[in-house]
Write a structure and sequence with these properties.
By secondary structure, the chain is of the alpha+beta class. 34% of the residues lie in helices and 24% in strands. The longest helix has 17 residues, at 28-44.
Length: 358
């Protein structure tokens, strides 16, 4: 298995984008392939005038409220010798695809996340865990970023070469950790995608309470769940809608998030895009992890997390099979009180963890 690339970025967002592009330049052919594959996928769903309007409205909104994200994308595009409009469209359609998918559901990629704190853990300290499931051909694009923004907290995150913001999960020097899971939703509209939300959370916030205030106040694109944990042991799952949101919190227990909405505010917006034989997959993983956390309450620790995320019952650790090109690409374990990320590239049942300390 090939090793992932580690990026070191610092400065303003345009400069960090340039540095990102420069440091992944050898992956440019794979990035171009990923862009072309995404555009072919979009065309299969026959994008209509409303879809193009949604893209345009989102771009206009980003110009008004998130110039830093656009500056980062511009820096990446220039370093990779890509047209800015091409890279921006790729970044946006990846998330706005749900508008088309809800009309012609395909199979979906999934991730499993959970967190525990207080009496639930062996140490009493919080832990947040994510398995990232993605298309297997994107494994070589997986990266880890050490970021020192011009203003705000330093952070370390995992993501994808050529993609902006925090594209998977991360933790900052204050001990605030965040990770996402894809949820196919009908509650979409012009707003910030979650890779922008996570970047701004890690740069500007030191607690779950502060991050939640931000998430409630900002214009959100919708789609996906965020799971958060801070060094004080506050946990939350924020279900992202454009118009509405769902929220679960605890200071002493566990939370789980997979690929569906649970809250009454967004439950009816979830669209199950799995084919009939896999229709309950997200629910089964949610129930399985919840059961395991309940059974291990008071003893949850890193070795338990590593075993659970490497397990093939349900499954949590997903291997590629004939006719399917999605598999578990990485596992991230965050220890907020220690400002530490443990990162396993590839299948967690086969790989080893690198310890990254802020």
């Amino acid at each position: 298995m090939s090793r992932y690339i580690t990026l070191n970025l610092q400065g303003d967002h345009y400069t960090m984008g340039r540095q990102h592009g420069d440091q992944v330049r050898r992956l440019r052919p794979l990035i171009v392939e990923a862009i072309e594959a995404r555009f072919r996928q979009i065309e299969q769903y026959e994008p209509d005038a409303r879809f193009e309007a949604l893209l345009r409205e989102t771009h206009e909104l980003l110009q008004d409220i998130d110039a830093p994200l656009l500056a980062m994308i511009r820096g990446q595009a220039e370093a990779l010798e890509l047209e800015f409009d091409t890279l921006l469209r790729y970044d946006l359609v990846t998330y706005l695809l749900d508008y088309l998918v809800t009309r012609k559901p395909p199979g979906t990629e999934g991730c499993t996340t959970w967190a525990a704190t207080g009496l639930a853990t062996a140490s009493g300290q919080p832990i947040l865990v994510k398995n990232r499931d993605n298309r297997l051909e994107r494994l070589p694009l997986q990266i880890v970023i050490h970021a020192t923004p011009e203003a705000g907290y330093r952070y370390v995150c995992s993501g994808s070469a050529g993609s902006p913001g925090v594209f998977c999960a991360g933790i900052n020097q204050a001990g605030l950790a965040v990770a996402d899971t894809h949820v196919c939703s009908t509650d979409l509209g012009p707003g910030l995608p979650d890779y922008a939300l996570m970047m701004h959370i890690l740069e500007a916030h030191d607690s779950v309470s502060s991050a939640l205030d931000y998430l409630r106040s900002v214009l959100r694109q919708g789609r996906n769940n965020l799971i958060l944990a801070d060094a004080q042991g506050h946990l939350a799952v924020f279900e992202i809608g454009h118009r509405n949101y769902g929220l679960f919190e605890t200071h002493d227990g566990t939370l789980v998030s997979t690929n569906h909405f649970v809250s009454p505010e967004l439950r009816d917006c979830f669209v199950n895009t799995n084919p009939p034989p896999k229709r309950g997959n997200s629910f089964h993983r949610y129930e399985r992890v919840t059961r395991e956390l309940d059974d291990t309450f008071g003893q949850i620790d890193v070795p338990f997390a590593q075993r659970l995320m490497a397990s093939h019952d349900t499954p949590i650790c997903r291997h590629a099979v004939a006719g399917k090109d999605s598999a578990t690409n990485s596992t991230s374990i965050f220890l907020p009180a220690r400002r530490t990320m443990l990162f396993c590239h590839g299948l967690p049942c086969q790989g080893q963890y690198d310890e990254l300390v802020l």
